[in-house]
Amino acid sequence: MKPNIPFFALVACITATAAFAQKTPSQPDPAVVDEMDEYAVVQISDPFEPVNRAIFGFNDGLYDYVFRPVSKGYTTVVPKPARHGIRNFFDNIKFPIRFVNSALQGKFKRAGLETGKFAVNTVAGLGGFIRVSDDVPALAQIPREDTGQTFGVWGIGKGPYLVLPVFGPGTARDTVGFVGDYFLNPLNWNLRENIEWYTWEVETGVTVVNVVNTIPDLLASYDAPRKDAIDPYLAVRNAYVQYREAAVKQ
C-alpha cells in the first residue's frame, strides 16, 4: 500500500530540517566562533528582513514545540554512541557532495583525501558507522565542501539573506547550492528503481532516522548564536553568514 499525499508532505517537512544542520556545524572551528559577534559588521543584503523575521519567529516556535520534544525523546531512548554511529554513517554516504565540490573548486588533493577518508571509514569503519579516519592525522580535519561553497569560490555573490520555513537561515547562493547537494546525495538517487528491497517503506524509514538523528545537532547550532543575544534574529543571521564566508575561504 502506498502512502497518501499528506504523508509525503509530512516526510518532506521533516526532511527539510536537516538543511540548517548541514550548513552550520554543531561544533564550528574556534576561529570561526570567535568571529560570531552579534554586532559585527557583516556584508549581507537583507531586503526581505520583515518577512525573514516573521518566518524566523515561525521557525522558532516550530523548533521549540515540535523539534525539541522530539530531540529530547530521541536522545533519551537512543544512547549517545548509537547516535554518533548513525550520524557517521549518513555523513559517510554524503561523500559525493564533498568529493565533487572539492574537484569543482580545483582542490584535487582535498578530493583525493576525501576518497581516502571514505574508503577507510567504509571498509575499516563498518560501512561508516565508526569514523576511523579521525585517528588518521591526514584525514581527521578535512574542511567540508558543498555546492554553495563552490559557487562562492567561483566568485558568485551570496545574494540576499533568506529565512525559509523549516529550513532556517540561508542566502540565495546557498539555497541554489542546496539543490546541487540534494542531487549529489546518494540517498536521492532513486534507489527504489535499482534495488528491489529498497521499498518506499525502507526509504521513508531511512529518511526519518537520518533527520531525527540530525535534530539534536540542528538545535545546538541554532541555539549557540542566540544565547544571551539581545536580537536573536540578528545574532543567527550574522553567525550564519560569517561561518559560511569563512568556509568558502578555507
Outline the structure in words.
The chain has twelve helices and two strands, in the order αααααααααββααα. It has a two-stranded antiparallel ribbon with strand order 1-2. The protein has 250 residues and is mainly alpha-helical. The protein has one domain (44-249).
In whole angstroms, the N-to-C terminal distance is 48 Å
How many strand elements? Answer: 2
Helical coverage, percent range: 55-70%
Order of helices and strands: HHHHHHHHHEEHHH
Total count of domains:
1
Biggest β-sheet description: 2 strands, antiparallel
Spatial arrangement of strands, main beta sheet: 1-2
The 3D shape can be described as globular
Class from secondary-structure proportions: mainly alpha
Radius of gyration: 18 Å
User: Which band does the percent of strand residues land in?
Assistant: under 5%
- Averaging pLDDT over every residue, what do you get? 85
Summed up, the helix count is 12
